[in-house]
What does this fold into?
Amino acid sequence: MIRVAYGAPMPHGGGALNYLIDLVEHHDRTKVEPVVFVDERLRNADSALERLARCGIVVHRGPMAAPLDQFLRTGWWEQVLRDAGPFDVANLHQHVPGVGRAFLEGARRAKVRLLVRTEQLPRFPPHDRFTLNIRRLGLRIARGRLAAITDAVVVVSEAGRAALAARGESASRITSIPTAFCEASFASPPDRASVRASLGILPDATVVGFFASFTEQKQPDLFLDAAATLIAEGRSTVFVLGGDGPQAARVRARVAALGPQVRDIGHRRDLPDILASLDVFVLPSLWEGMPLTVLEAMRAGAAVVASDVDGTSEVVRDGVTGRLVPKADGIALTNAIRDLLDDADARRRLAAAGARHVTGRFDAATLAGRTEALYQASLTSR
It folds into this structure.
């Protein structure tokens, strides 16, 4: 039995946390015993933590995401991991490179045999000048230290592999295991009309959706700009969005101002059903690892319009399995959505091709199996 301590320094729920939970839910419990450590300030993740509880997976909370925690909490994490251990593996799942250093440093001191970090984003996000000078400097220092003590690195896309190699990471330590979702969640398609009725949407309406964190990375304002333009053209299309994050107040104020054709349905636990009720799914991110919601939307049968960045470009082939547009290009985004609204046949063709492309290729059971194989091979070779 391999005992694994998973570190999750994410400050809020979202695709990065769901990736981790899909992984631990699908571990073969005769081979791996997972224990999950989340940041003490984690919010908007009740449903995710409930999933772990239902599986009987122990969850601990501790300081992990704040910049100073990376330098001041190593001893604290060493003791926590000793008390909860012993562990064979510590795997730090990072949503931003460098975050969570103290967890892995503590694991090293606690004599954990194999130190792994999973990098879900291939590069640092942009910051303002103050953050660039303060927080990013701290993250760069932490990232360098993590690189020095890590035995293996998991990335979720080939873009991630290339980014790490460019930073000087040893290629022999990097393994690419793509983001995955639970196929069982999509095995029985919901009644589309019933889902729409629960949202107050007519069954024959054309529906465009955005479900992601309300952050600079995900660009909810770009989605709302496109909605405003298309509504002004006299279209009856309904635009729905859901999520939370630092831009939530501004996003919700804009939704209210745009009128009844734009609806914020909040954080949803039934996201697979909601995605299946869409005609078009939009994700105009500035950067990505391998976006879970894009995979889920494709599996659910929505035509995807997304920005041409990082891992997104590895799963969405423009004109074949979806539409890709340049990042931060609101005009191109609006045009791509308009094209699909005007051409139902193209919309259905892309949706069907996207569903075929991801079905069976990004299953969480495969993710878990490949991760278990990495642990076993790495431990055996030590």
Remarks:
- Residues 215 and 353 are 29 Å apart (CA to CA).
- Residues 364-381 form the longest helix (18 residues).
- The domain at 2-180+363-381 is CATH 3.40.50.2000 (Rossmann fold).
